[in-house]
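Journal club prep — side note

Before the paper discussion, L.F. wants everyone to see what a predicted structure for a comparable chain looks like in token form. Sequence:
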Amino acid sequence: MDWWRAPAGAASGLLAGFAALAVAELVSATVRPEAGPVVAVGGAAIDRTPASVKDWAIKEFGTNDKLVLQLGILAVLALLAMALGLVALRRRLVGAAGVLVFGLIGALAATGRPDSTGFRDAFPSLAGAVAGAGLLYGLSGRLATASAPGGDRAEAPSESGDAPSAERPATGEWDRRGFVIAATVAAAASAGVGALGRSFNASRGKAAIASRAAVELPSPASPARAVPRGAQVRVPGVSSFTTSNKDFYRVDTALVVPKVNADTWRLSIHGKGVTRETTVSFADLLGRELIERDITLTCVSNEVGGPYVGNARWIGVRLADLLTECGVVPPSRGGPADQLVARSVDGMTIGSPVDDVMDGRDAMLALGMNGRPLPFAHGFPVRMLVPGLYGYVSACKWIEDIELTTFDDYDPYWVKRDWARKAPIKTQSRIDTPRPFARPKAGTVMVAGVAWAQHRGIDKVEVRVDDGPWRPADLAAEDTRDTWRQWSFPWAATPGGHTLTVRATDRAGAIQTARRTRTIPDGASGRHSVVVTVD
């Protein structure tokens, strides 16, 4: 075997894999972007990932966890494609069949997703696999015609007995040149097909983008009160009291952010205790009485001192009013349903206690965020949120269905993965400044941060230096009990290494516990500390 055949075989596999993905991308534009093999396999991987691994990924990679997953899938596919290219050097059919097998895996992953629209979701992976298998078979065929050592194959004399023409290149040389030409054409064609597919997929979202651009949020019938002066402490390094849309954390399982057209969006409400099943449109919600509230959201994956918490001004429709109109009665008053299951367009299911949704708190179907229509990444056109509950049991984005049922009858997505059925947000606090391992100068150092206990409110924050006594911090003005509260503490810092620890007390009198727990199954607990060295 010529030395160049092995790398050429591996390159054939890579090109076949590239062609398969490019064709799949183009075909997915005729089905839906979520049916593409990388997205489908990535979604299936997320669905089957143990909660502990998912938690580790969020901790290590933050909101880039989905990008890391997709890059990992592509890296594995590249290695497997090269391996199939090497196999095809000796067994063309086996190598090509291997590509078809991976196409079948992608098809099964696509049709097995919760949001699958049926067998059509298999088309992108199958079409891509056929194209990739055909290309690998063809390229490996060119390599298989290579001759004996040296890459040249002696030509038979012509019928006239003349020697082979010196002007004709040796067969081995022609095969190398022909392979390079064929591979170059295949790479260029695949790149063009892939670009065309991405363009078509991007155009599919244009109607949704246009529908969002056309939204004008009405003035709310019940506006949020002005954020009180003094809610933001004047200490550099502390989080902004209101988190901007671009800085608001995003934790979900969607590898492709759904782009839903507000003009065609509908929400169905049905299930146990629903005496009047209802379907509402976006326009219906805009025409209803709207409320505007400042509400802090927290992800259950937020470690002690973590970043997955943010405060925004939301505008939407009271969910309790809508449910009452449908005849829903909470279980505390005799209703048959104790769980509200919200379903997203991407197949996510989130279960919330009906009593919590209807106990008077500002649970809503949100249409706007910080004065603008919801960003696509945060649930446009409509998302659900319930103050005081972690997002995985309350904050369904891209919502399209609400079913009233019971906790005994149905386990939503995260409950099936060992997270708790009910998850009120725990009392927590965080030191924003100084940062861990900072080196402040001796003298007065401002220690500051945020504390939260949504729907209960924060009554006290205390700071401890090393093993010293707990000392009260200065609390910023409170907006509402559903928002976080900022605090500051002037520390007379002395040279050397020190550990700063914070704890909060909520309005129910509960002191933030020192007992450290993982985020699984119902949120992390413990006290946030930072180590600094004072110069």
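L.F.'s comment for the group: The longest helix spans residues 171-204. Keep this in mind when we get to the figures.
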